[in-house]
User: Fold this.
Amino acid sequence: MHSATLRLAARDAATADAVRHALQVELRDGPPGVTTKLRLEGAEVVADVVADDLSGLRAALTGLARLGGAALGALAR
Assistant:
């Protein structure tokens, strides 16, 4: 098992919650063998990722970072 934590900082808690919700919808299509739990810590979305192998972990983290970054960018406008 391999694990990592990704933190995405938003400007406020409401924005972080919107990003968490957007990411939660996408988790259904994640790579096989990967479990991701999302939570809020103030104005941060925290993703705890556990994967069976390193390639699954990399795929999950890359997807979360890209989608989270896009959501943060869209909400900043």
User: Anything to note?
Assistant: The beta strands are 2-9, 34-41, 44-51.
